[in-house]
Amino acid sequence: MKIAVVGTGYVGLVTGTCFAETGNHVTCIDIDEKKVEKLKNKVIPIYEPGLDVLFDRNIKQGRLDFTTNLKEGIKGAKIIFLALPTPPGEDGSADLSYILKVADDLGPILEDYTVIVDKSTVPVGTADKVTAAIAANAKVEFSVVSNPEFLREGVAVEDFMKPDRVVIGTSSKKAQKIMEELYAPLVRQGNPVITMDEKSAELTKYAANSFLATKITFMNEIANMCELVGADVDMVRKGVGTDSRIGKRFLFAGIGYGGSCFPKDVQALAKSAKEVNYDFEILNAVMSKNETQKTKLIDRIKDHFGDIKGKTFSVWGLAFKPYTDDIREAPALVNIKALLDAGAKVKTYDPEAMENVKGQLGDSIEFCEDEYAAAEGADALLIMTEWPVFRTPEFDKIKTLLKENVIFDGRNLYNTETMAELGFTYYSIGRAAVKN
Ligand SMILES: NC(=O)c1ccc[n+]([C@@H]2O[C@H](COP(=O)([O-])OP(=O)(O)OC[C@H]3O[C@@H](n4cnc5c(N)ncnc54)[C@H](O)[C@@H]3O)[C@@H](O)[C@H]2O)c1
Ligand SMILES: O=c1ccn([C@@H]2O[C@H](COP(=O)(O)OP(=O)(O)O[C@H]3O[C@H](CO)[C@@H](O)[C@H](O)[C@H]3O)[C@@H](O)[C@H]2O)c(=O)[nH]1
């Protein structure tokens, strides 16, 4: 099948590449000329593990190409995916301007019956708005389908190729059949395709993200309780996670959720509720609790050191989670800002995200070639992202590099007893502090 993907970011590039891998001819379209130039030169502009193998193979086999020209890119496409940004607007609601602009542009250039798919995360009612925008100028029949994406960055290819489920929101039998044909290679692996109306599909995406964000926040609250009563959040996590009604995943306490999805989607759902005069109170609590959780360790740092003006902190990890270079809403950046605002200095290392942070923070912090160089001469070490390379460092080497043997761990990477034996003062989340 010939398909087009409009928007070639984290979702669009993975969607396009994976559908090429299942035998389709895919054209990815983006207005960012530099990005398209890179892609044409076989350079992937993001870090996403495993994407390169599929990307190279499908370009070589002539199933994947790139353009900035919408009309050229959609020619002959049976399905057009919209994988465009839906960032928070000033009032917190999802900004649909990118989607509606492309919908306006598509109307006059559609040449045959086409399925237009909202792959972006969009509020209830967007399929109707996209339909109206296209219909204003379309000369041919078309259907708009809501097909939200549930992939996680860092494991995007795996999530896309083996999804827990595929949600297809459509009231058109014709569009449903075409979408089911497209997803058939993934369904054959035993994954369910759940077909529903457009509005339910749109809400499913926000419900999933908001539920997961709430689950994480709930565990962060339990962690805060643990610290006050002398319990251990890792034990509590194991104790509750083994209940199959609760499940083991997404129960890890830390320095708050970040990324390009949870923060904006929880906010957008709260805003959508408000628009229908419903106060979705639990979401307001999740958002405000997540904000305070992010800088929890800054309070510990100030308790430990008193005034931190002039002190140097080594920050391990910048990306909002491991296996990505994405720094959107990364808790590490909030912590770095708090340290700089208090007059402290920062030395940092991240395996993939340093270039993106350089673009934002310039030379206000020091970027180092590895985690040990980042620790050298620092007053303390802060762990912000659980990259595997940070899990088993050479602690004896760290001791020779840090001025004081103190670690503030936002991801609970180390065993507290081991840290006590090694002679570190060690603060983590939801567990007793180790003082040495
Ligand atoms: N990132 C994720 O993990 C993820 C997962 C599921 C869903 N989503 C949702 O998918 C959508 C896209 O997210 P993303 O992270 O891929 O965004 P992104 O910012 O990485 O990519 C969006 C791309 O769209 C391009 N673009 C903007 N206007 C355009 C236009 N008029 N024509 C062509 N291209 C245009 C941009 O240049 C950019 O390359 C959002 O709604 C997001 O909420 C994201
Ligand atoms: O137990 C956990 C799990 C995650 N996180 C944090 O939660 C955030 C989001 O993590 P994750 O969900 O793994 O990454 P995303 O790539 O943002 O994926 C989420 O957002 C995407 C965009 O909508 C959805 O498609 C995915 O299903 C959804 O998991 C990160 O800051 C994590 O550190 C925790 O603090 N504790």
Concise description?
It comes from Reichenbachiella ulvae. This protein is of the alpha/beta class and 436 residues long. The protein contains 18 helices and 14 strands.
Describe the structure.
About 45% of the residues lie in helices and about 15% in strands. The chain is α/β, with parallel strands linked by helices and about 425 residues long. It has 3 domains: about 1-195, NAD(P)-binding Rossmann-like Domain (Rossmann fold); about 205-290, N-(1-d-carboxylethyl)-l-norvaline Dehydrogenase, domain 2 (Orthogonal Bundle); about 295-425, 3-Layer(aba) Sandwich (Rossmann fold). The strands form 3 sheets. A 6-stranded parallel beta sheet has the order 3-2-1-4-5-6, with helices on both faces. Strands 11-10-9-12-13-14 form a 6-stranded parallel beta sheet, sandwiched between helices. Helix 1 (about 10-20) crosses helix 3 and helix 9 (about 200-230) packs across helix 12. Uridine-5'-diphosphate-glucose binds near residues 216, 251 and 262. Uridine-5'-diphosphate-glucose binds near residues 121, 254, 257, 320 and 321.
Helix content percent band: 40-55%
Query: How many discrete structural domains?
Result: 3
- List each distinct ligand once: nicotinamide-adenine-dinucleotide, uridine-5'-diphosphate-glucose
Taking pLDDT < 50 over at least 5 consecutive residues as the criterion, the unreliable ranges are none
Family: Belongs to the UDP-glucose/GDP-mannose dehydrogenase family.
Keywords: NAD, Oxidoreductase
Catalytic activity: UDP-alpha-D-glucose + 2 NAD(+) + H2O = UDP-alpha-D-glucuronate + 2 NADH + 3 H(+)
Domain UDP-glucose/GDP-mannose dehydrogenase C-terminal: 314-416
